Write the structure tokens for this entry.
Amino acid sequence: MKIAISGKGGVGKTTIAGTLCRTLGRSGREVLAIDGDPNPNLAVVLGIEGNPAPPPLSGKLLERYEGEDGKTRVRLEDPVEEVFRTHGIAAPDNVTLLLLGKPEHAGTGCMCSSHAVVREVVHAAVAETNRITVLDMEASLEHMKRGTAKYVDVLYVVVEPYYRSLEAAARIQELARELEIERVAVIANKVRGDEDREAIEQFCAKRGLDLRVLIPYDETLAEAEREGRSIVELNGASVAVQRIAELGKEILASAA
Ligand SMILES: Nc1ncnc2c1ncn2[C@@H]1O[C@H](COP(=O)(O)OP(=O)(O)OP(=O)(O)O)[C@@H](O)[C@H]1O
Ligand SMILES: [Mg+2]
């Protein structure tokens, strides 16, 4: 099962991705979390202490080979478990974290090989180790243009109840269709009341977006942020964690 979490800047992608990883991992499944943001911060939400700095995924992990059709392709040089050993951080609750590399040459901003390696790692993690993979995407649509998201089964788009965030979700859905991603679903976050809920429901209905989960605005998240701690540890009974855990159960049921 391959999941990616996308959406406009600051909508709650990392909070949701990290919490989802932990609730999935607590069910007993092994989870691979990939921080696809060049400025990574998924580690905190995952409950990783200190500031470990493993080498980020880089194109050096790939080798070229010639496919049956004579075309040159790339694949991981080593088994994916070896990549976890050399590049992964073990997190609580059966989660392993990998980081996407920063742009290799300052100024050019080109991350092509980093994106190719994420694609290959996700593919191998599922094929070789049956892990659930959760990719926390950066706010720009760079990932999708590079086709990384082509290797996801479900793309969740996190939205907040304001117009630009909702419009971004509609654009992401269009792009996902072009990339032939099977399922796109919306997670509404920071919902403060009925007006917010209705605005999101109406937008989704009008634009054909599949609204799956509503997560209320939750003060405990601000507290977790202030303390630099994982919400799961600070307050596992908080309403946001409970909603994300319900989403996790749904995902596990559909993956069974
Ligand atoms: N349901 C919620 N209630 C209250 N605050 C929330 C909620 N979800 C997320 N937040 C807060 O919103 C802020 C942004 O969250 P987060 O970093 O997860 O967003 P992001 O989409 O990953 O951002 P970026 O685009 O910068 O990667 C954080 O301070 C987080 O604690
Ligand atoms: Mg983020």
Observations:
- Strands lie at 2-7, 31-35, 62-66, 72-76, 89-91, 95-99, 132-136, 154-159, 183-191, 211-216.
- The first strand starts at residue 2 and ends at 7.
